[in-house]
Amino acid sequence: MPRRAHVLLALVAPMVLLLRAALVRADLECPQSVVDKGEVRSGLPLAHRFTFRNSGPEAVEITDVRPSCGCLAPKLEKRTLQAGEFGDLLLEVNTLTQPAGLHSWRITLCYKSGTTEQEMSLYIRARVVTEITVEPPSLAIYTDTAIRHEITVIDRRTEPLIVRAVPTSSPYVRTHLGELRRDDAGHWRRTIQVEVAADCPEGAHTEILRICTSDPLYSELKVPFTLVKRARHRVSAAPASVVLSQSANQPLPARIVLLSAAEDDDIRIDRIESDHPAVTCRWAPGPGHQATLKIHVDRRQIPGDRLRAAVHVHVSQPAAETITIPVSCLLH
């Protein structure tokens, strides 16, 4: 064999071996990775079960499931698939949170076999038609005591649906129906008061509020909500957060925050910390049993045109606790 042929063979052989290894490596295959659901109405259930197969010779481990938005709720049955084994994933879409029009929702499966890492994306497509909306379509409630929130059901049709009941999955959350009325745009609106009881246990609670109606098409609208009950502080801040908005070439004014104890006890502050160098805070006792904070924001140290930070006030009297005051700033 000529020397040139030997050289060519030496170069080509490793490439052939690498190509063969790539062709036989473990892989997930889904025969229908894109599903078109056509037209769906906002608030109605939308879900699809994807089936896939490990077509490679080795076991596959699904390491992560990444939804493209918070409206998606993926449910994966099995994370490890042997060679030739099938798996499935149920993907549910909360259509209440979606505006009218065409949508494409994506879920990405990250998986590996040995040291090889790969991804597979699955899609649900649909056109959302908006007749009924709930504002807001989901709730996040943070509280240390009893509190009320309000949601509104909006019906754009000529004849409105009738809300029969609004149960929740939490025994510590009650609801109260408001009156049905028509707004200036001619849409029907009904408010629902959501009340969290004072004896709700501390911690994070993931719950569902169900709006049960007389409409056979929209018989039940589900509103997910997260309830975070925090330990009640003996010291409170007023205002609870600082929001600044100013022209980019103007200095930012300082903001005053008053700390008060629930039983008019004296307040003693050990130290104050800021989680961003642009934010500083000083304090002084008074007036009376209160303590006064003065929060400054140095616009020269703000990266870009906005800032989100917080001031952490460590109190030792009347009880040891930390009061966190969010600070946000927008430069026009």
Keywords:
332 residues, mainly beta, Immunoglobulin-like, 3 domains, five-stranded mixed sheet, four-stranded antiparallel sheet, 1 helix, 57% strand, globular
Can you offer a commentary on this structure?
The strands form 6 sheets. The chain has a 5-stranded mixed β-sheet, with no helix packed on it. A 4-stranded antiparallel β-sheet has the order 1-3-7-5, with no helix packed on it. The model is unreliable at 5-24 (pLDDT under 50). The protein has 332 residues and is mainly beta. It has 3 domains: 25-129, Immunoglobulin-like, CATH 2.60.40; 132-229, Immunoglobulin-like, CATH 2.60.40.10; 235-331, Immunoglobulins (Immunoglobulin-like), CATH 2.60.40.10. The protein has 1 helix and 25 strands. Helices cover 7% and strands 57% of the residues. The longest helix is centred in the N-terminal third of the chain and has 22 residues, at 3-24.
Q: Sketch the major β-sheet.
A: 5 strands, mixed
- The Cα radius of gyration reads 28 Å
- The string of secondary-structure elements, in order, is HEEEEEEEEEEEEEEEEEEEEEEEEE
Structural class: mainly beta
Shape estimate: globular
Q: What is the CATH top level name of the largest domain? A: Mainly Beta
Write the CATH architecture name of the largest domain: Sandwich
Helical stretch tally: 1
Number of domains: 3
Uncertain runs are 5-24
In what range is the share of β-strand residues? over 45%
End-to-end CA span: 75 Å
Stated plainly, the CATH topology of the largest domain is called: Immunoglobulin-like
